[in-house]
Structures are given as C-alpha cells and as structure tokens.
Amino acid sequence: MTQHSFRADGAKITVYLDGPVWDGKPTAAVGAFACKTKEGGAAVLQQAIDCIRDNGITHIIGPMDGDTWHSYRFVTQTDESPAFLLEPKNTPDALEVFKEAGFSEISSYFSARVPLEQAAKTAPAATTDFEIEHWDGTDPERLFGQVFELSCEAFANNAFYKPITRDAFLAMYMPIVPMLNRELILFARRLDQTLVGFLFGTPNYAEGPKPSSVILKTYASLMKGAGQHLAYTFHKTAAVNGFDTAIHALIHDDNLSALRSAAEGADVFRRYGLFGLKLDD
Fold this sequence. Notes:
281 residues; Aminopeptidase; 35% strand; N-acetyltransferase domain-containing protein
C-alpha cells in the first residue's frame, strides 16, 4: 500500500495513493485523520490534497485507512451515546474540515439498536438448503480463513471494494480472538458442508467486562435466505446468553440488512458518511 503521512499544528493525516476505484476512476484515500484545531486540520488536509494532485490522481475519498477492510467513515449524526466496540469515532471539527475543503458525502450508513425482547419474533421459513451452526471455538485461524474467502466473494461487487490478501486479513482479526464469544459466530452450510454464509457478532466490550449489549458486526451470504436465518439465530442466541440489546452496526443505507434491521424494530442512533472530492483535471 503506497502511502504518505503528514503532520502540522497538532493534526495528522495519511494518504493512500492506491485507494479503491470511485466513479470508474483511480482514487486516493485519506485516513488516520485527527486534528486539535480546524486550522491545523485544514493545513494538513491541504498537504494531502497537494500530494495527491502531484501524483496525477483527481479523485479522493475519505476518511478511509486505505480500503473498506480497515477503518473508514465519519460520524455525521449521533444521539451522543457512547461509542461501541470497533465503531469509528471523530470530532465534529474533523468532519467540518473535510466539508470546508469541498468534500461531499458519497455513501451513507447507520447503526441501530433493538431490545432483544422484541427482536426475532417471527422465525424464517424452514429450509433444507442449509443448516446454521455455531463456531465450535477451535482453530480460529481456520475460522477467519473461511470468513475471508466468503467475504471476498460476497463483497466483491460492493462500492469501494478493494481486495486484500488472506495474510493481511488474518493480521487484522487474529488479535481479537481472545474477545470472541463462539456462540455469537455463526455459519450457514449446505449439507455437504460448503459454506454459504457467516455472521460475526461480539459482545460490546466498550461497556466493560460484562456488557449488556451485543453487536451484529458483519454478516454475508451467498444463498437466498441464509442471511435471514443467521440474523434470527444471532438474536435468539444473544437473548439466551443474557444480553438485553442488539446493535446492528454500520449498515449501508441501501443494503438489504437495512430493511431487515427496520423490520426488527431497531432504532437508528448513529449515522455515518464516506466523503469524496473530485479535483480539477
């Protein structure tokens, strides 16, 4: 990943010159952004823009730490509740710096919460096409290897998708193995054991060692209906394990997951945006 970092007046930013494609054009991503003042943030962002222009790139997206596998998005609206585990965070000044530099929102997302006592009221139709199983708690490298392979296939057509290597993926996720709750990691498999879906959930340890909420972080499927069965099993399992609230995390506004979250009666409490800037040719 070709990158350059800049600092100025208590602010910092990193430029990734080989960002995802946006609008059919090669794109640079800007991420790892923080500023103590708007003035310092504006100065360091301008350095990043100048670097990108000097490298002949006209499309910029941010905030994004290189790709969507890593941290990206600004919080754009909030109810001021504490951040949950693995949630992106930023100051209002950081968002304003980008807007004042000409960036506009190009993709929008939300997080919602639902009391588990009201979730998963209706079971999806029974099927013999696949079975839902919990992770058995063994061989985490194999677990994340399977998640990586299915993710690459399931997300390949998503906007801003950029492939990464299996080793890079494992380097991100293996450090969180000690925090995993095997009951909240689910697989959908055909009878021949072919993997057709997964769901990755985790207790919200941002609340402390005994959290009351649980996060539905990511799920994906390659077979119709598998996602619905995974989500239903997740909510039921979380309730049985003593959690009282489910957080539907970081959902794209146009994703099918958004409709499912709304159907569960989940209330949106945070919104996020990915921003873009097109430089003059």
